[in-house]
């Protein structure tokens, strides 16, 4: 093993002490969807051994022996079950992040349908239009309702106008700003009604934020977002609800679609993934989180997160602070707090609205402290504007003819 010189060792320990000090000094953030309720120390020994590289296809071990593909396959199986992927028609892998997973989905779309048009809503994460651009596919941005859910009439109109083209839809299962969920059952029905054949369509679901919590809902309440509802490919982040200590995401796809777009092999395992060398620690972390929680633990964490968000929403209402929350969301959207409060709690400002994510690890005490700080202030008078420009719930500029006469997006209660 290499051992550093005394001088280098001194530089490193001083720098690490400074870094640790900065990280320790970070206050309580509320604006990010990153859960932080897992103790990762049981993985310390394996995390410090050295390289773990899951090269290419996780379902072929390949030549390089230091990998975690065996646990990766288990992790993919657990998530595929949660998303009702057909037992005999599923494949997936742990990608570097949800952006890579989106690129996987849209690259598959481009290989299957080079002439496809990609439809996604204005509430889609910027990673979606970026992935469409990288895959050289044209994308069309669709309207949403005031709470960030796809406008199905606009969707139907845009599909009807492109009957000659293969249609690729990217639905949100938990939009970044408001955790809006696009109804994949309705999307599938519209594609059926407009006679878009299954060979000329692909439905991708960006479930980066909410895929796991939505999957834990009772079937009577669960929105339509998974394979049973018509999805062909779903991706979900590891570093959001699952709290993994590095960015990562799982992508699950119908294996039969992949088979129609074959890939080459050169590392002893097919190069079936966007990144060839892949993080074996990340795959292990996803499996570890899923396994220590189990389905009951995942459900309990989702229930707690939603309960805390419901409490925050109610308390904001009682304080006269405009706020709303989508069904099943752990995110509360509120009129943007004053600048200093925003800075202290790490809250973004899109169009006079901010959001608080009650991700697992956010405590009721933290929410109580935030509410107490906010109690001394009054909300900004005009949510829905940035620098004098009207913006929608997604923080985008609103075309003049679509502007509501009154700001409709920040209301008082549940839908
Ligand atoms: C976070 C997020 C992404 C992007 O994920 P990365 O892992 O940061 O690349 C995409 N979509 C949604 C809905 C997200 O919340």
TrEMBL record:
<protein>
    <submittedName>
        <fullName>Histidine decarboxylase</fullName>
    </submittedName>
</protein>
<comment type="similarity">
    <text>Belongs to the group II decarboxylase family.</text>
</comment>
<dbReference type="InterPro" id="IPR015421">
    <property type="entry name" value="PyrdxlP-dep_Trfase_major"/>
</dbReference>
<keyword id="KW-0210">Decarboxylase</keyword>
<dbReference type="InterPro" id="IPR051151">
    <property type="entry name" value="Group_II_Decarboxylase"/>
</dbReference>
<dbReference type="Pfam" id="PF00282">
    <property type="entry name" value="Pyridoxal_deC"/>
</dbReference>
<keyword id="KW-0456">Lyase</keyword>
<keyword id="KW-0663">Pyridoxal phosphate</keyword>
<dbReference type="InterPro" id="IPR002129">
    <property type="entry name" value="PyrdxlP-dep_de-COase"/>
</dbReference>
<dbReference type="InterPro" id="IPR015424">
    <property type="entry name" value="PyrdxlP-dep_Trfase"/>
</dbReference>
């Amino acid at each position: 093993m290499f051992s550093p010189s005394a001088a280098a060792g001194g530089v490193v320990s001083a720098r690490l002490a400074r870094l640790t000090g900065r990280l320790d000094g970070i206050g309580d953030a509320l604006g990010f969807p990153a859960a932080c309720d897992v103790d990762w120390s049981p993985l310390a020994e394996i995390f410090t051994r050295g390289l773990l590289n899951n090269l290419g296809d996780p379902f072929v071990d390949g030549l390089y022996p230091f990998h975690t593909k065996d646990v990766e396959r288990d992790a993919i199986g657990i998530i595929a079950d949660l998303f009702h992927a057909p037992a005999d028609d599923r494949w997936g892998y742990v990608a570097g992040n949800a952006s890579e997973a989106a690129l996987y989905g849209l690259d598959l779309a481009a290989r299957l349908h080079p002439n496809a048009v990609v439809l996604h809503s204005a509430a889609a994460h910027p990673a979606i239009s970026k992935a469409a651009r990288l895959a050289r596919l044209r994308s069309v941005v669709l309207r949403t309702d005031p709470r960030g859910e796809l406008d199905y009439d606009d969707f139907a109109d845009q599909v009807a106008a492109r009957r000659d083209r293969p249609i690729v839809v990217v639905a949100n299962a938990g939009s970044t700003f408001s955790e809006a969920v696009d109804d994949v059952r309705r999307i599938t029905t519209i594609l059926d009604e407009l006679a878009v054949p299954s060979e000329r369509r692909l439905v991708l679901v960006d479930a980066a934020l909410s895929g796991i919590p939505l999957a834990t809902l009772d079937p009577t309440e669960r929105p339509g977002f998974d394979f049973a509802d018509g999805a062909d490919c779903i991706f979900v982040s590891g570093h959001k609800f699952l709290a993994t200590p590095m960015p990562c995401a799982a992508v699950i796809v119908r294996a039969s679609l992949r088979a129609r777009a074959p890939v080459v092999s050169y590392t002893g395992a097919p190069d079936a993934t966007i990144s060839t060398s892949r993080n074996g620690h990340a795959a292990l972390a996803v499996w570890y989180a899923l396994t220590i929680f189990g389905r009951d633990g995942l459900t309990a964490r989702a229930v707690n997160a939603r309960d805390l968000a419901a409490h925050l929403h109610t308390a904001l209402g009682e304080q006269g602070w405009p706020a709303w929350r989508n069904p099943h969301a752990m995110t509360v959207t509120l009129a943007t707090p004053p600048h200093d409060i925003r800075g202290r709690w790490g809250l973004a400002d899109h169009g006079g609205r901010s959001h608080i994510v009650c991700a697992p690890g956010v405590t009721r005490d933290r929410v109580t402290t935030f509410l107490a700080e906010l109690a001394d202030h009054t909300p900004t008078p005009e949510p829905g504007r940035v620098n004098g420009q009207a913006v929608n719930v997604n923080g985008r500029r609103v075309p003049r003819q679509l502007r509501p006469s009154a700001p409709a997006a920040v209301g008082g209660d549940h839908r």
